[in-house]
Structures are given as structure tokens and as C-alpha cells.
Amino acid sequence: MDPFLCPQCGATLKYTSSFAVSTVCEYCRSLVVRHDKNIELWGKEADLQDDLNPLQIGTRGTYQKTGFTIAGGVRLNHHEGFWHEWFLQLDQPVQNSNYAWLVQAQGEYQFLLEPLVIPPPLSREVGAVVDVPNEIIKKIGVWSAGLLRDQDAFKIVDIRTAGMSGFVGQLPWAPDRNRQRMVAELASTGDLKLTVEFGIVSSQLYYGQVLYFEDFKFENLKEIKGW
Ligand SMILES: [Zn+2]
To answer: Is residue 32 part of a domain?
Structure first.
């Protein structure tokens, strides 16, 4: 396929992930969205502005012996602070997941697999039980082997609304700066992490594992002064 060129400055756009829908031009910071055969200019994007973050586009890491590369990222803001979500291009699928996310919040690192679609939860309050269909529990159970000890009711333990305040690189969807994302964390056993992002017709269930920075054996990190 011919490379896509930035409609704003003419530079070659990076679309290394076949799951990427949008990308931010490295040169002029225009947000560009890919359709079937053409591309659309969505305007200029602010940078992530996180000079103290060692993770960057091109950082390599490992999860359960599968290598990955950071292809893009989003910065999310809520009233208590912010966090980052990095879009990962996997060297090979992990448990039928073609891509993954690395959520970085206050020194905590969560590796999350491609989300599964679940019906919209009936209640959006802390303490409410989220009905996770059996086949999805099975899927998560097979992958998590041991992390998911029982099939207790999944209860909402934390809920927050966040807006996106910056993008970099490629993303598997077209980011909408004006959209508020409502995200709930579900109670789970051990290191298993279950997160639900609420939607109108359906919701996305993200599942994965909490790990330490060292576990990912990162390479090509950004050099931080004073580290
Ligand atoms: Zn450009």
C-alpha cells in the first residue's frame, strides 16, 4: 500500500499497526483519521507534555515472552489527576488479542488485552453488580488461569469520568477530545484487573494484569534528566 501523506504538511504518516485508525503527524502534530482508502484531517493536537515520563513511541517491552512496541498514547484527565494509556503493537497475538494497552497511573502499570464487548451495565454506581456474560468469564478464566479464583459477582469498586487531553502516535480509533469517558473498575481477585468502559449500545470490558515497571524489560526509553 502507498504510504499515507499528511494532508497538512505532506510528511509520510506512520501507520505501522494494521489496527491503527488515527495517527498524529510527527512533524506538524495534525490528527489524521484513516478511512478505507482516504484520510481525513481532524486538526491539530496538543502534545502529551510529559517530560518526566520514560515511555515514548517506539519503546519496546515484553509481556509473557511476547514483545511489543508502543505505537501511540493518550493522556486522560479527571478531577484528581491524569494517567496515560499506551497503544501497543504486539509481535504476535496474545490470547487471541491482536493489540493491547498499557495503562500507566501513579507508578502502577496495567497490561490490558483487546477489550471484549458486553451489554451495557444496568447500574453505574459503586457497589452495583455488573453482569458479565458466562462465555466472557470463560474466556477471561482460560487466560487468567489462577488470577480469577472464582466467579463471584463482579462489583463496581471505583468509577470515574475522564476526558482526553492529549494524543501521540497511532490509535485504534479516532479520538474525540469532547467525549467524556466513564470507566469503572471491578472487584477482582489477585492481580487480575477488570475495567469497564461504558457505552450507549454496548460496553467494553478490558482485562489484564497489574505488573511492575521492571517486569516489562523496557528498551528504548526516553532519557530523563536526573535519572
Ligand atoms: Zn503533518
So the answer is: no
Rounded CA separation 175/200 (Å): 17
Question: CB atoms < 10 A from the CB of 44, how many?
Answer: 12
In the reported structure, the alpha carbon of residue 22 is separated from the centroid of ligand 1 by a whole-number distance in angstroms of 13
H or E stretch covering 136? helix 134-144
| 3, part of any domain | no
CA of 11 to the centre of ligand 1 (A): 5
Compute the distance from residue 20 Cα to the ligand 1 centre, in Å.
17
Q: For residue 23, is it within any domain?
A: no
Instruction: For residue 144, give its domain range.
Output: 60-212
Phi, psi of 226 (to 5 degrees): 90, 0
Q: Which of the four pLDDT bands, split at 50, 70 and 90, describes residue 227?
A: low
Domain total in the chain: 1
Read off the pLDDT of residues 24-74 as tens digits, 9 standing for 90 and up.
Answer: 999 999 999 988 778 888 888 766 766 688 999 999 999 989 999 999 999
Q: How far away, in angstroms, is 13 Cα from ligand 1 center?
A: 8
CA distances from 177 to 56, 94, 166 (A): 21, 30, 8
Neighbours of ion ligand 1 (CB under 5 A): 6, 8-9, 11, 25, 27-28, 30
Decide if 8 is inside a domain. no
Ligand 1 mean position, distance from CA 30 (Å) = 6
106 alpha carbon – ligand 1 mean position (Å): 32
Output the CA 70–ligand 1 centroid distance in Å: 20
